Amino acid sequence: MGQTISQIFGGVDPWYVPSEKLEELESWFTESYDERTQRLVVRISQIRWRAIPANPTMAIVPIEFLQAFESSLDTALDECLGDEWKTEWWIHRIWNLLEWAVEDSDYRNVSASTLEHFQKLVDMRVEERSTEPQIVFRLYVDRLRAMFYAPDFGLSEWFMYTFASWLRCQNLPPMPAYLEYMDPPFEWAPIENPENAIERSIANLTRRPIENLLEPGEVGECGICRQEVQAGTDVTVLEPFCSHWFHTGCIHCVLRMNAGGKHCPACRAHIVLEEQ
């Protein structure tokens, strides 16, 4: 992402010069594209031998989920037209989901064959690193569409639901009650009545008025839902772990989910939460 010193290729990409927006984006992520690529490649390699085989139960994804997911990809393509910032942001969001899949502590939500599909997405980003982001994203969308209809696809319905919710899929049906790994309803709402130590720890994260975090005249945008933060809104800052901030409901939802561990969605800083 952007023009960075490559840890994989050992040089600076001379073909694609990033815009100021992309340089700002990379600074916001606090991690270069090459660092992120290398980390994800290593992680996939580490867990591939522990991933489970694809099976009919995993391979059957409700058609409503697929339709909602495809609708989301269409929306993303429309958003990305002429906007490098949103294009790189969507690619970053998809990569977060890949990381969630490979970091799941029980390796229960992704099959070995689907890990191979994920590896191809990573390889494509490396191979196309000198290509403009919008072209890369179109390639990603085509690959994702094909992946979810592949006969050896294996991503549990629970994870597919999380995937679809994170990508803001429109008209997403409720999570089926029979799902083995069913979590509490996926709602972008602050934790009001914590039920355990982790939820109390999340609810107690620092909150500040958005006006205290912006320069005069600057417009704030949540790094999770990408919606503008209205004046007078208190947002949650992930201090002392990092300085990134988000809508309180958005970050509470992300940290409460089991997939991906407790990390900042932007910089991957580990968020230490009380468990007892």
TrEMBL record:
Give the residue range of the signal peptide.
none
Ranges for the RING-type domain?
Answer: 222-268
- Whether Transcription counts among this entry's keywords is no
Gene3D superfamilies linked: Zinc/RING finger domain, C3HC4 (zinc finger)
UniProtKB keywords: Metal-binding, Zinc, Zinc-finger
UniProt-listed Pfam families:
zf-RING_2 (PF13639)
Question: What GO molecular function terms would the record report?
Answer: zinc ion binding
Q: What SUPFAM superfamilies does its record include? A: RING/U-box
User: Can you tell which superkingdom this protein's organism belongs to?
Assistant: Eukaryota
Name it: RING-type domain-containing protein
> To which species is this protein native?
Penicillium cosmopolitanum
